[in-house]
Amino acid sequence: MRFVILYTLSFGFLISVAAKPFESDVIKTKSGNVTITFIGHGSLMLEFKGKVIHVDPFSKLTDYSLLPKADLVLITHEHFDHLDTAALNKIAKETTTIITNKQCVGILQKGIALSNGDTTSFDEIKIKAVPAYNTTPGRDKFHPKGRDNGYIVTFGDRIIYIAGDTEPVPEMKELKNIDIAFLPVNQPYTMTPEQAVEAIRIIKPAIFYPYHFGETKLENLTFLLKGVKGTEIRIRNMK
Q1: Contacts of 215 by beta carbon, 8 Å cutoff, 6+ apart
Q2: How far is it, in rounded angstroms, from Cα 109 to Cα 118?
Q3: Angle ∠(29,165,103) on CA atoms, nearest 5
Q4: Is the pLDDT of residue 83 over 50?
Q5: What pLDDT is recorded for position 60?
Q6: How many whole angstroms separate alpha carbon 123 and alpha carbon 209?
Q7: Domain boundaries, the chain
Q8: CA 120 → CA 11, 37, 54, 101, distances in Å?
Q9: Which residues contact 185 (CB under 8 A, 6 or more apart)?
C-alpha cells in the first residue's frame, strides 16, 4: 500500500451562513500539492497548481459567492443536493468547465457529458467517470445503474476516488492504486457502515474519508474498520 502524506489545516472563509471554518487537508504529489476543503454533505473543493475544482456544490451548505471561483466543476448526478444551479451560478466563470452526466447536461444545456467508463483531462488533471448506483432491491429507484457518475481524479502520482451516490458495485473491483477514497455512508440512499467496509475491502485505499453521511453514526463505521488493515479512516466535518 502506498503512503499519502496529509497535513490538516484549519482555515475559514468569512461566510455568514457557516457556523465554523471549513477543515482542509493538503496532499503532497510529485506534481504539487492538492488541497482538499471539506464543504459538507457531498460537496468538496480541491485546489491544484492554481486551479480550483468544485465537486457537487450545494447552496444549503454555504454562500458559494464567498468561495473561490471554479475552473472545473464535477457533478455526479441530477439530484437537487448535487446539481444546484444557484451554487453553480455563484462559482462559475465564463471559462469554467463542467463535467457531469448526460442528464445534467440536458438540464443545464451546457457542460461535458461523460458516461461510465469515459475519460477526459483538464490541464494536468485526468478524470474518469465510473459507475455509481444502488444494488439493494428497492433502492435502485434512487440511483439506477448506468445513469450517475463517480469520478477517478488523478493529480500527478495520486489517485482520488470520489464515489458519488452509490452502494458497493462489482465495477469497484476494477479500481486500482487508489490513494484516497470518498465513500458515501447515508442509508438508504447510499451505503450502510457495513457496506462502506465492504467497499473498502474491495478498493483498498490508503486513506478513506466518509462523506455524504447525514446522521449516520460514524463510530459504528470506525468500530467496523478496526479489522481492516492498510486503510486509514479520516473523519472530517461534512455536515
Answers
A1: none
A2: 20
A3: 100
A4: yes
A5: 93
A6: 26
A7: 24-233
A8: 32, 23, 17, 13
A9: 191, 192, 193, 196, 210, 211, 212, 213, 216, 218, 221
Across the chain, mean pLDDT equals 90
Closest residue by Cα to residue 155 from 5, 18, 33: 33
**Burial degree of 103 (CB within 10 A; 0-12, 13-18, 19+):** middle
pTM of the model: 0.90
Q: What is the arithmetic mean of pLDDT over 34-58?
A: 97
**Assigned architecture for domain 24-233:** 4-Layer Sandwich (3.60)
Provide long-range contacts, Cβ within 8 A and 24+ apart, for 175-180.
175/130, 175/202, 175/203, 177/2, 178/152, 178/203, 178/204, 178/205, 178/206, 179/2, 179/4, 179/27, 179/205, 179/206, 179/207, 180/4, 180/27, 180/205, 180/206, 180/207, 180/208, 180/209
| Residues 10/22, Cβ–Cβ less than 8 Å | no
Instruction: Check residue 216 and give its pLDDT.
Output: 77
Residue type, 173: K
How far is it, in rounded angstroms, from Cα 55 to Cα 40? 11
Residues in the chain: 239
